[in-house]
Amino acid sequence: MSSTVDLGFFDAIQASMEAEATVKDNIRASVRELDRTNRNITAVLNRVHSSPKEQVPALCTQARIYFSDIQTHISDLAGMVPVNQYYKYNGLWSAPMQQACFLATLCTYLETERLITVEELEGFFAVKVDLDNNITDFRISIEEFLHGVVSLTNELSRLAVNAVTSGDFSRPVRIGKFLKELYSGFQLLNLKNDTLRKRFDGIKYDIKKVEEIIYDLTVRKLVVANVETDIEEDTSVAEA
């Protein structure tokens, strides 16, 4: 009596599963390298919290050297992802990619005190940002980009505290103005009720933290009153 089950069917499935496991293992190995480079950049940029402002440009220059390594890691990842299967494997690298976007955003802010542009972010990583939600090859997703921007707000609220400690009393004022403008920009987006939305809601607490610093500096007459008028025009954001 002939078999009613074609065992070759299961052999094919097993081969497919092994092939997918190999792809994931290779991606995870590359992601570990990306994580390592992120930590190197973080270690450099973290020194801005304890360094004189005159040293910040040099720290940014040092950090930028590592971004060429990130380009290599991303290129390796792009070569591992099967065609049209970006979202199938995206979860393996999304978190470190968000961190890389944050580091590029922070580096740009420290150099220019403005928000990074899409073109500048693409320059950091030598890969396109997906703006039309139609990824067919390796891209930086818009969610990864926005998560990086949200992470910037928390880092800048921390920098505002440490700037006061080092005697740079004008920096919190500039940071506060920037965060309020950034918050206004995020309010233009129709974000879904997911992780990104929840993190966006946290921006107002970073703003409130900076506003409290500015208020204390004002009371102590450590900043020029007319400079911070712009930043104190609308305190309702942090209280919303």
Helices and strands, with pairings:
Elements: H1 7-45, H2 56-80, H3 86-89, H4 94-112, H5 118-125, E1 129-130, E2 140-141, H6 142-165, H7 171-187, H8 195-201, H9 203-219, H10 225-232, H11 236-239
Parallel strand pairs: 1-2
Helix pairs in contact: 1-2, 1-4, 2-4, 4-6, 6-7, 6-9, 7-9, 7-10
Brief description of this entry?
This protein is mostly helical.
Using DSSP, what is the number of strands? 2
Amino- and carboxy-terminal Cα gap: 76 Å
Q: Detail the poorly predicted runs.
A: 226-240
Count of DSSP H/I helices: 11
For the biggest sheet, the summary is: 2 strands, parallel
Q: Helices and strands, in N-to-C order?
A: HHHHHEEHHHHHH
Q: Which overall shape is indicated by the principal axes computed on the Cα atoms?
A: elongated
Strand order of the largest sheet: 1-2
Can you give the helix content as a percent range? Answer: over 70%
What percent of residues are in strands? under 5%
The whole-number mean of residue pLDDT values reads 88
Structural class of the helices, strands and pairings? mainly alpha
Estimated radius of gyration: 22 Å
Subcellular location: Cytoplasm; Nucleus
Keywords: Cytoplasm, DNA-binding, Endonuclease, Hydrolase, Nuclease, Nucleus, RNA-binding
Pfam families: Translin
Subunit structure: Ring-shaped heterooctamer of six TSN and two TSNAX subunits, DNA/RNA binding occurs inside the ring.
